[in-house]
Amino acid sequence: MTMHTVVLGTTGTTPADVLAVARQNAKVELSAEAVTALAKAREIVDALAAKPEPVYGVSTGFGALATRHISTELRAQLQRNIVRSHAAGMGPRVEREVVRALMFLRLKTVCSGHTGVRPEVAQTMADLLNAGITPVVHEYGSLGCSGDLAPLSHCALTLMGEGDAEGPDGTVRPAGELLAEHGIRPVELREKEGLALLNGTDGMLGMLLMAIDDLERLYKSADITAALSLEALLGTDKVLAPELHAIRPHPGQGAAAANMLAVLEGSGLTGHHQDDAPRVQDAYSVRCAPQVAGAGRDTLAHAALVASRELASAVDNPVVLPDGRVESNGNFHGAPVAYVLDFLAIAAADLASISERRTDRLLDKNRSHGLPPFLADDAGVDSGLMIAQYTQAALVSEMKRLAVPASADSIPSSAMQEDHVSMGWSAARKLRTAVGNLARVIAVELYASTRAIELRAGLTPAPASAAAIAAAREAGVAGPGPDRYLSPDLAAAESFVRDGGLLAAVEKITGPLA
To answer: CA end-to-end span of the chain, whole Å?
Structure first.
């Protein structure tokens, strides 16, 4: 479904606009201001191209080949060649939303007026997005320095009418055919334009913005499932009191505690310690839920700050400055983005880890305070949720591996000219996997905690918890009963969490969660 039209100026864009274009097929327009800035910067590039002195990216080779001065008659071929040679990706196709974010963010930088790209090239980039033509981009090919080179090259190749692309109907076809069908003329690149289309952190930034969007929803969902587990374990909500979190004033921690307290308001299960197993305190996985989820929230806030700065940036090399200079720089290095991508993978792994510990506690009759083993209907005949926890544990274990930082690695390239790289694209790719796994982990906790609450006969859950349970059942997430084919139930729980159904059901009772 098409959303609003996004108008690009010279000062960057917003996360909401990136998400609208990437995920909701919003249309893109160039502002008059952007067209003027593009034309002005192009005049500077054309003037430099006419001079005998070599200028990097305008009249020279690239990378380690920058020492060669390129004659006028070879410059169009030079720009075509950099796109063709750099479109060297391998492996599976990258998701459509990632490619659309990549294309839109490259266009955002082009519109800044710092790249020297002609207005007609920028317009063609917008035309591709508006036509729903998505270049085929592959998993491997970016080191996160000198930009996301191979991924961006595959996009530029489509702009030239070469290579393969996906049409709006989802069919992959030769790009030239798709452009012709939509009345789009392939671009003929001139000085600097090939380089300008390749040299940015757009892929990793696009994936960061989408991960932040997903994680904001998942962190709220994790607060809900933590509250449901606390209820199911007959825990105490006293540890969520605002005055306790005020004396350790991390904002995320306070928000997570407030969310849990809102979900638990009116619960008839909290504080019912069992006579045969009195508890002075709940286990860490229950009692410290706000501290862990809160730290992740604060990490998200830092990542969002980095992303906002990157959205306001013009990442290219060389850049056209307002005073007419074209200067080389290192702004294409992806370290700022790569670090927070890795940081988020660490936070997501820890949130998944504490969620899994609560699930395991719900299933263990020695620690669940009166619940049946594995929440089974007839334990021994039924295995209940035993293997659902195995699946959750496997997901958590993979997330721990994915938390190993990509940005701590570097491998030299381009004959040692590009001898330190960020690996930000790799950090972004593994974070996408981690975010998907986190949704599944939270879904398993939801599956277990809602079943456990329903097994507490005679005790009434909080109104928000009851709303979550009712909505989950309506979404196909089954409640207590004999063993059944679990995989479809878990898939339904995953969709319910990932698509925001859980959050929407609870917020109807609590109001917006923080």
So the answer is: 28
Catalytic residues: 56
Output the six-digit token pair for 237: 């909500």
For residues 83 and 88, give the distance between their C-alpha atoms in angstroms, rounded to a whole number.
9
Who contacts 67 (Cβ-Cβ below 8 Å, separation ≥6)? Answer: 60, 61
Q: What single-letter amino acid sits at 136?
A: V
Sign of CA dihedral 360, 365, 367, 371: positive
501-510 and 463-474 helices cross at what angle (nearest 10)? 150
pTM above 0.90, yes or no: yes
DSSP 174-188: EHHHHHHHTTPPPP-
CA distance 61 to 461: 69
386 and 280 in one domain? yes
Quick one: 31 and 54 in the same domain?
yes
Side chain identity at residue 284, one-letter code: Y
> SS3 for 173?
strand
Query: Which of 138, 166, 200 is the endpoint of a domain?
Result: 200
Q: How far apart are CA 309 and CA 202, in angstroms?
A: 13
Residue 233, token pair as written in the block = 């374990």
- Residue 270, token pair as written in the block: 């909290």
Between 202-232 and 424-454, two packed helices, what is the crossing angle to 10 degrees?
20
Model pLDDT for residues 217-258, shown as the tens digit of each residue: 999 999 999 999 999 999 999 999 999 999 999 999 999 999
Q: What is the CA radius of gyration of the chain?
A: 26
Which among 108, 114, 132 is positioned nearest to 31, based on CA atoms? 108
Reduced 3-state DSSP string for 260-328: HHHHHCCCCCCCCCCCCCCCCCCCHHHHCHHHHHHHHHHHHHHHHHHHHHHHCCCCCCCEECCCCCEEC
Output the CA torsion sign for 301, 306, 309, 311: negative
Q: For position 120, which CATH number holds? A: 1.10.275.10
The tens digit of pLDDT for each residue in 87-116 reads: 999 999 999 999 999 999 999 999 999 999
Rounded to whole angstroms, how far apart are CA atoms 126 and 115? Answer: 16
